[in-house]
Amino acid sequence: MAALRALLIVVIAIAIVFALYYFTVAGKSTNTAHASTITVSPKSTSSSSTSTVGIQYGPCNNFELFTTNLSNTVTTECYWGGGPVGIWVSGGITGKETATITGVSDNIVYVNQTSAYPCVTYFTNLTLPNQYYTVSLTTGAHTSSGLETTQCYYAYVGINQTLSPPAQVYQQVYNGGFSDGKYTGWTVNDTGFGTKPLNITYADTANVNCYLSAPWRNYNGTYFATTFNCGLSNAPGNITSSPFYARLPFLNFQIISPDDKLDYIQVLYNGTPYITAWYNTYNVTISANSASLFQNASIPLVNVINKPIQIRVVARTLAQQRFIAVGDFRISSVPVQSVQPSNITFAPGS
Q1: CB-based burial of residue 198 (10 Å sphere; 0-12 exposed, 13-18 middle, 19+ buried)?
Q2: Into which CATH architecture does domain 187-346 fall?
Q3: Less Cβ crowding at N or C end of the chain, within 10 Å?
Q4: CA separation for the pair 321, 317 (Å, rounded)
Q5: Rounded Cα distance, 11 and 183, in Å
Q6: In contact, 101 and 33? CB cutoff 8 Å
Q7: Global pTM exceeds 0.70
């Protein structure tokens, strides 16, 4: 009987120890494993300039990845159940950013873009299928001077479900040189300016010859907006920039334009024309070669200094060989011009 009592005491003790273990250790481990969000330890890196942040087991919308480090790459992962998202980017004080979004399952690169614009801006919207995604942000090697870099600090890539660009006023002309090969940041109306800017390298290629009489000359860039349709009939259209502050007194740009009252440049204030300028840089009846030579032009912004304005380029000419070409828009403290406007008007009271 004494032996049976001793055996019962041992069994009860073992049961108590097991219960304590389960509720203090095993139970907590089970709860943690089923948490909705887990951050794991950083992965090892291949170089000092590359870092990987914790994997984020959550939806890719309302997702942000940012850094202020120069010449750096940060990478993470997120999950998206499928559907439309908006992509937002900025270069911050690093001078440039490159953002990539790659599907983990299908290995498709859905976003691969580079921008030198410092402030957070809308890039594009797209529909992403159901899977995990690797998101990488690579920063530039230097800081650029200017008010915009002090106000926009972080290099950034963000994903959310806001598919329309915000009503943002930029600190400079956004995408004034169309350097991304797109009309990013510009509103395009009608068909005259096409779906994208013209690539001067492509147009001047010998087997393309997308110019009038002579190759394009004297342009400070690779892409420009134009209604020249490689020798085909012209169509009407206009493009309008995103709002920006007239922090400096001159709007400088490059232009090719006929003497035609239907082709002109406007500065908009409060969404309405404030300044309208016409230019005459070529006349094909005198010299067709001048139709491919860009001229430097300036519009004074003194009356709208520090106010939010927009640029609108209007082309309503339908005649062949009468086209407009523009680009390299920027604000400056001094005018840079090789051609004066043939006519310029200001809104009443300005």
Answers
A1: buried
A2: Sandwich (2.60)
A3: N
A4: 10
A5: 79
A6: no
A7: no
CA distances from 265 to 93, 191, 221, 255, 312 (A): 32, 17, 20, 10, 6
Which residue pairs from 342-346 have beta carbons closer than 8 angstroms and sit at least 24 positions apart in sequence?
342/259, 342/278, 342/279, 342/280, 343/277, 343/278, 344/275, 344/276, 344/277, 344/278, 344/299, 345/275, 345/276, 346/274, 346/275, 346/303
Q: Which residue has the tokens 């922090």?
A: 247
For residues 336 and 34, give the distance between their C-alpha atoms in angstroms, rounded to a whole number: 64
Task: Give the residue from 193, 300, 317 showing the smallest Cα distance to 263.
Answer: 317
Position 40 confidence tier, pLDDT thresholds 50, 70, 90: very low
Domain 51-160 -> CATH class = mainly beta
Tokens encoding 44:
């090892």
- The reported pLDDT for the residue numbered 31 is 27
Taking only the tens place, the pLDDT of each residue in 170-226 is 777 888 999 889 998 899 999 999 999 999 999 998 788 899 888 999 999 899 999
In angstroms, the CA 174 to CA 22 distance is 61
Compute CA distances 219 → 137, 160, 311, whole Å.
31, 37, 19
